[in-house]
Amino acid sequence: MAVQQQVNKILRGIGASSGIIAGRAYLVERFKVRMPEKKIDPTRVDEEVERFLRAIEESRSQLREVKEKILDPVVRQHTFILDVHLMILDDEMLIQNTVDHIRKRKVNSEWALDLTLEKLDSAFKAIDDEYLRERRSDLHYVSSRIFRNLMGKKHDDITKIKGKVIIVAHDLSPADTLQMRLNQVAGFVTDIGGKVSHTAILARSLGIPAVVGLETATSLINGGDLLIIDGETGEVVINPTEEVSESFMERRKRIRSLEREILKYASLPAETRDGVRIQFQANIEMIEEVPSAKSHGAEGVGLYRTEILYLNRKDLPTEEEHYQTYRKLVENISPGIATIRTLDIGGDKFLDGYSKNNEMNPAMGLRAIRFSIKETDIFKEQLRGILRASAHGKLRILFPMISGIEEIRKAKALLEDAKKGLIRAKIHFDRGIKIGAMIEIPSASMTADILAREVDFFSIGTNDLIQYALAVDRINEHVSYLYEPLHPAILRIVRSVVHSARNAGIPVAICGEMASEPAYVLVLLGLGLQEFSMNPIAIPKVKKILRMARAEETRLMAETLFQFSTASEIKRYVRKWMAEMFPEDFRKSIAEELKA
Ligand code: PEP
Ligand code: MG
To answer: What's the pLDDT tens digit per position in 226-274?
Structure first.
């Protein structure tokens, strides 16, 4: 059937990563990567057992292949690890138990294997021999390989896409997005998603223009259509006429020259007009972003999201890999500080074979520190890597998704264990390493006075804080209109966290996306924040506005905001205030916005 071509059809979504780009559409049929737990029909039991045994066999041959490929004699000495893994794959208990579960409980292989692992895991935990207990991690490596082989065939392989195309997908995970730079993807558009989803954040880091939350993109766009996407305004034009293309390209030229103009603020002193010193730091996901962080004026890294190390791979990063990565970060960002956030997996970023992608509510599930405290072997590898890197420069640790004091204490206890191990092995690390808590769950903000006794610093993560405080899923386009950084509740929370940090005498930074918006950052300054960590690209424009401001005036402005009862009133007031304070820069655009 011939497909009727649409011309100049405009779709409006959420601008997720700025930049205007034109290209041909490439439609991706995205399979939702979930770890399925299903009951199976009794007649299909044999088939399911077969499937499981095939996954075991596949895992075996993969491991043998890995082993054969290792030619380096030094590395070969360590291949006994692979032999251990091969032995686990032959383990009667692992295989027979899983097969029994499939047969007796009539569940699919993934579920059956999970049940076996739970049992084996507690058996391992009970062993009173440290060496044997440590073998739990081998069991996990092996099982994650089996899980991947069970599920892997169903995944779309985005790496197969070649050339300059605009990806059109229902949904893209952060892991998919991460692979894009390898494939020269010009941009992407998705049906679902929000501005502060990790997919959007990653697209900004990679500099890929993106529009999300279009709802109908995959049904309205055909593969091969010419698209123009504007990642700032959220507009997507299907098959634009030449005239329309030209007007977009004109706009692109203007934006680019404005960006060049604003870049000069990167190197200017970070100080308000009344002499308040501001600290600018970068949120990064990859080491490769360090040069950009520096050239955009970041003094250090306020948030290094370590999840990327774990995504798109068949195994887990080793302690050595953690160490080498963080060491490189610390050395490259020197003399600035590197804030390394421990694994924040779960929510919208999943670890193959480990994270339970089938959680009903992953944002409130086994995410971040909860996962690390449960999977202590994985956590300890990372902690040891971080500690070892701390011997090479200024480094501090940040724990994500802290909901209360007990989690901090557990995380600290595991850190202490890791430290003791290194001391025993006579390996250097910074004995005075500072640890911090992300304040991104309302319960943490309400108990910030208590948490402050246990940590050396706070970092307010408004991306999640807003999500959890306002009960607005940060990746759900249907409720994105409710995602309101200037909500009276958010202002009250930020004010009280700053107050608690001050009382306890510990520094407090903000690393949520909110800090990268000029209007919001003035409010944040007014609420007492002076350390801002953000996507490096945003630093020059934020610095420009803060250099024009007087901290004392923003304080008075912020105080006034507490009289208002809605986010709209607050926004209106802030924008008017900005237009009065900085007429040159804001009057026109704000007049337009108020009209809209
Ligand atoms: C946040 O929640 O504000 C934050 C900075 O962390 P992430 O976006 O990685 O959840
Ligand atoms: Mg967060």
So the answer is: 999 999 999 999 999 999 999 999 999 999 999 899 999 999 999 999 9
236: helix, strand or coil: strand
pTM attached to this predicted model: 0.75
Pairing of strands 187-190, 210-212: parallel
The b-or-e profile of 252-277 (16+ CB within 10 A means b, else e) is beeeeeeeeeebebbeeebebeeebe
Decide: 36 and 240 in contact? Cβ < 8 Å: no
Which residues sit opposite 228 in a β-bridge? 22, 237
- Return the bridge partners of 528, or none: none
What is the distance between the alpha carbons of residues 305 and 307, in angstroms, rounded to a whole number? Answer: 6
Query: What are the residues facing 189 on neighbouring strands?
Result: 168, 211
Measured by CA distance, the residue closest to atom 3 of ligand 1 is: 461
> Among 351, 356, 322, 378, which Cα is nearest to 134's?
378
Residues 48 and 43: their CA atoms lie apart, in Å, by 10
* CB-CB neighbours of 105 under 10 Å: 13
β-sheet bridge partners, residue 434: 396
Residue 104, burial from CB neighbour count under 10 angstroms (0-12, 13-18, 19+):
exposed
Ligand 1, pocket-test mutation among 439, 508, 510, 511, most atoms within 8 A of CB:
511
Lookup: tokens for 49: 């057992």
Query: Which of 463, 475, 513, 535 maximizes ligand 1 atoms within 8 Å of its Cβ, making it the mutation to test the pocket?
Result: 463
Are the beta carbons of 293 and 333 closer than 8 angstroms? yes
Q: What is d(CA 537, CA 545) in angstroms, rounded to the nearest whole number?
A: 15
> Cα-flanking dihedrals φ and ψ of residue 562, to 5°?
-75, -5
Higher per-residue pLDDT: 272 or 148: 272
User: CA 188, 189, 192, 195 torsion: positive or negative?
Assistant: positive
